[in-house]
Structure formats: C-alpha cells, structure tokens
Input
Amino acid sequence: AGGVSLVKAGALTTCTHLPYAPFQAKDETGKVVGFDVELIDLVAKKLGVTQEIVDTPFEGIKSGSDLNAGKCDVAAAGMTITDERKQVLDFSDPYFDATQALAVLTGSSVKTLEELAGKRVGVQGGTTGEEYIKTQVEQKGLNIEVVSFRDLAAQQQALATNQVEAAVNDLPVWNEYIKNNPGKVVVAAGFDTGEQYGFAVKKGNAALLQAVNESLAAARSDGTYDRIYATWIGA
Ligand code: ARG
Output
C-alpha cells in the first residue's frame, strides 16, 4: 500500500486502550467506535485496507513497546504528545486539543484541589492526568491520596460509587460521561494543560507517518474532520 508496510496484510492494525469515549469505546453491538476510530478509518481507506483494532493497556502504547513488537501499525488512544513519549514514538501532526478536568459527584462542594485535603483523588494510570495531579500534590505539598485506576471505566466507577472524592482525566471524557449519565457528576475545575493528541507510529516508520499526516490534512481541508468532530465531540 504505497510503500507502507503493514504488520498484517490487508489491514491497518491500531493499538488502543479501551474504553476512552468519545475517542474509542465499544458501542451496544461490541464494535469499537469513536473520534479516533473514524480518523484512522480514513488512513486505512487511503491505504486500501481496513482498520483492525487491538485493545491493549496504555503503558504498552505510550512506551512504544506494542509498536516495536509489531502488535500494531499505529497507536490511536486519545494520547497526548509529550517530550518523553516523543523519545520512543513518532507522532503525527496534532489532531485534538485537550485540557485536564476535575470531576466530582453532583452535590459535592469541592471546587479546588486544595479542598481535597485528606481525601482521595482517582486518576487513570500512566496518563498525563495522573502526572499532572502527582506534580501538583508534590509542588503544593497537598495532603491528597492519589489512587491510580487501570482504565477509565474503573476510574469512573470509583467516582460514581464514592470510592474517591474526585477524579482527574481529560475534559472531553468527562463531557461524554456527563452526556451519557445525566446528573451524576459535574466538572468542578479545569486545568489548562494545553495538551495536544497525536497518533503514533513506530520510530522511523516515515511512510506510514506521512500517510497519517496526509490523511489528517485532507480531512481538515475537505470538511471531514469537522463532521467527525461534530459527531463525537459536539459543536
Ligand atoms: N490524554 C491522556 C494521555 O495521553 C490520556 C489518554 C488515555 N487514553 C486511553 N485510550 N486510555 O496520557
């Protein structure tokens, strides 16, 4: 497919870590759908193959080990581009801007991290949200117990069942949760971390990276990106 070699013939294999709605999650039928899924479908189409999604823990994605091991061609996981990750992955052009947000149960009076003194805050293991909170706790000398969960579903479940007083993750995933579970949680505070998401390929896979970037650029210029954004993120 245009000088691009793929780990599995006839497919563009994507590593992701489920669930991370609205970027990737299973629908009622078990099919993985979302913002990232649609953008990578465009890349697959450009290459004349179909996308196949592999669900794998975030650690193996962000460390580059899944890509290096040939588990997949591309990583698409609502993954923030960071300097540390750039050492082990080659990132596409940014495709989404995100910030961190603190979610609490509706009715909670908490509005700041300081008000969480003596309490537990849930984070998703290995994410930029976890790193942000750990840094804040350390820098401000806050007496907060940071509890890491293996995935977004476990983190959200812990918040919903009061095992943690608050939880930090990327703003769009809280917006999606609130949309699907009206009245349950609210965003108490936002932290403008200025994050940008990128798709990643194995270091040195320039041919695939170029295909991803060309596909993104085409989607941005022909309105497809805006349509996908409206579908999954909103106006
Ligand atoms: N944007 C955050 C990060 O890069 C969270 C990503 C989590 N993604 C996922 N599919 N579980 O660290």
User: Anything to note?
Assistant: Residues 206-222 form the longest helix (17 residues). The radius of gyration is 18 Å.
